[in-house]
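Input record (Table S2, row 330):
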Amino acid sequence: MAIDPEKDLIETRAGRDTSFFDLVSIDSVTPQDMELIFALARKFRSYGTHKFSFNKGCSLVNAFFESSTRTMASFDLSAKQLSMDTSNVGSNSSTTKGESYLDTAETLDSYNLKILVVRAREAGVPEFLARHVQTSVINAGDGWHEHPTQALLDALTMLDHFKGADLKGRTVTIVGDILHSRVFGSLSRILKKLGATIRVAGPETFFPAHVENFGLTLHHKVDEALEGAHVVYALRVQEERGAGGFIPTAREYSKMYGISKRRLDLAAKDAILMHPGPVRRDIDVHSALVSVDERAHILQQVENGMAIRKTLLWLLGNRTDSSIKEFKRK
Ligand code: CP
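Output record (phosphoric acid mono(formamide)ester complex):
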């Protein structure tokens, strides 16, 4: 007998909700939340672009005040595949005429949204807005701070590759512009929750002050950091945040820290190469690795982004508890 995708998802969810109403930081994601999110994401992924009716009659606004390809498109497509109505505002919004983020969010909240997805250049904007609106707010990346849905899709990619429930005994080497990276902000938090060993490699100018207190090791020599690593996670040099002033030239950076085949071969035999995108080919990672090396899991990350975002939209946009607004006020 053919499986009914909706029934399968409902059975997997088993009436569970997340412990959080807004997702602004990985700090608020518990081990139980992760177990639920990953189980549902795997199911959603297995059903591809199947159209679910779960969030019919619910609306989502993508408020992206900074550019995006994968995060914005995947939230929009995910919402549509859950039968939501969607609208996108951002760099073309009335903030360009001097309207504040708060007035913008309160205006959008008046449309009785279920979900407001926010990306901003400044750290703390999604958290601030979440305190003032009734709708669930999802942080789609705030300044140098966090990008929690990226961390969830990254963790799912790693767990599925290593077929484990956690990352104990696994070493993740993060290479590049840690200082300006919100991806690092969320990734380091989730890796800690999953028990991974974290190594960080790059030029000293990219190491935030006291980052070693977070329980990771710092490496100036990238080869040393890659030795035996299970995941090689390359980050982009974020020139839009002024990173160009922290390194001599992109060519120099690529020579010293770019991930080449020789460097990737230093990692463990079953290692994978990851990158949040957008990739700057031949600066962060050598182009041939991105396109043809089977260790590159960059497009698997993108695919998992859809599954994770669909899961979050279902969980946050269609809670099984009836006291949604009371939950928000707690
Ligand atoms: N990884 C990521 O956030 O990519 P976009 O900027 O394209 O959304």
